[in-house]
Amino acid sequence: MMLKKLFLIICLSIVCILPAHGAFANVTILCYHEIDRAGDAFAVSHQRFENHLQFLKKEGYHFVSLDEYVRYCRGELNLPAKSVMITFDDGYRSFYTKVYPLLKKYQAPGMLAIVSSWTNHEEKPNDVRDTASWAELKEMEDSGLVAVVSHTHAMHKQLAINPQGGRNGVVGSHLYFDGRYETDEEYRTRVTNDINEVQRLFQENLGHKARAMVWPYGIYTKEAVDIAVQSGMDATFLLDGGVNEPGETSRLYAKRIIMESSFDVGRLKKLLTVNHDTWDSSGIRLAQVDLDNIYSKNQKQYEQNLEGLLINLSNNNINAVALQAFADPDGDGNVDEVYFANSQVPVRADIFNDVANRLQQQLITVLAWMPTLNYQSLISKDESNAVKSRGEKGWYHRLSPFDQNGLNHVNKLFYELAASTQIDGILLQDDLYLNQDEDFSLPAQKDYRQKFGKDLLAVNTNSKEDLAAFTQWKIEALDNAADGAIKAFKSVHPHAIIMRDVYAGTLLYADADNWLGQRYKDCLSKYDYTVVMAYPFMDKEEKPYEYLKKIAQVVKENQGTSKTLVKIQTYDWDKECWLDSKIITRQMRTLKAAGMKNLGYYPLGFVHWEQ
Questions:
Q1: What confidence score (pLDDT) does residue 173 get?
Q2: Model confidence, pTM
Q3: What's the CATH class of domain 285-373+403-433+474-602?
């Protein structure tokens, strides 16, 4: 899923106490790699690993086998409250010589994921040490303690995924070669052939098919998971951190915690009991980045701009970036082109993938900042499918959310963005709104008549009943437009992070749904994060800091602190100048003091986030 998996960020793990009535426990899965390899940040020592086993045994943890885990996920098996699974990746011979004896000593089952091409001494990188032989693998399996599974046949590598030559895990997206992106069919064939070879070798050497897949670097797609399951695998494993509850999601997308060489028993205990080290566990610090300011036809200038961006972000305590995926060089907010290869909208330059990939190499979570409706090339020349007002005109020129044909093109656009990149999610732009006088377009009129059997042009917004129905109808249309784009994106990256921009008025005014078509409570339930655009100076608030406090109060009243990100402005668009750093700092401190956990800013400038 994410390039940052390559750098093996350690994520949270919570073990819940089993209730008295015998409900299912949560399973924590630990991911180890090599044993006793000096200089390897992810190779634990033989003694440290034994200390881990001793601690787990002493504390009463139940060691979960692969078979037990699959049955647990399917609801066929209850497990003790303290349940942990031991897994090792890559198939090193040190597992056979040093780990396997300890598993026998403590009678702890384990799972070993092998790269079968390495087992066959094919395509093995120079830095990969000896791997266990097929005979040794079979011996361990026959003991009943070790389940040998796949780490792919030959997909534990990185290849080019964009025109600039940026590399990433080969499972996570279409590759780039011969001046073009891989097609859907080529991707499908490549992954299928690799997994078929896995199953052939397992059957030939171990007498059975591989029961599970452990995705290299934790990078995967939904289609890759589907192919693995179709080949006969019962489960696949990631590196996303966290714990696993019963259910199909945990079976097909099992979360694991990566163990580092420095992790002693004290650290292990924290990982098992504390919400620790997820990308957002200490709060999100998001920068919204205009790619318009990075792009240049001059390659040297582009590289200088990009390098400046990376330095800026690395000095700012930023852990997430909403990266502009569309082009808006004239700043009118309407989209004529985008920055990624696709078949639906004109491309200004294919650079989004490159910038996103380089940001992820800095361990920054990257979301595509994307509109849903304001694609000008999808609006017909006669504007019959554009949002139409019978009064106040909106500030974006948008495709009507009632035009399903136009939305189909948008959905395809989001799919193609997902298929060609390995980004972590999307931020839906603030074009998902309809004011009190919108939408009276032809598609809207048709939809309204089908739903209500009435003429939309005759709706009386002075009637409370008509206004309520009119508002709800618009909100549902906007939500459906967003849902279609999200579904298309998640058909590739099923666990993508989804954020949506909403206007501050949505929180501050009881009737805002009538004149924005947005409801804060609805967004809290629908999206991973609701991003509140808290721009007091743009909104010409006389008391800007009281304004921020009011927003924070509403967030807390709706129990939305963990799922809301408050985004402040760093630029005064009226005066065309950056806000003073003291003003920016005061905005941040005001929100933090009011209990806000997740903060963002726009546009990107130099802002040093306080811890």
A1: 96
A2: 0.92
A3: alpha beta
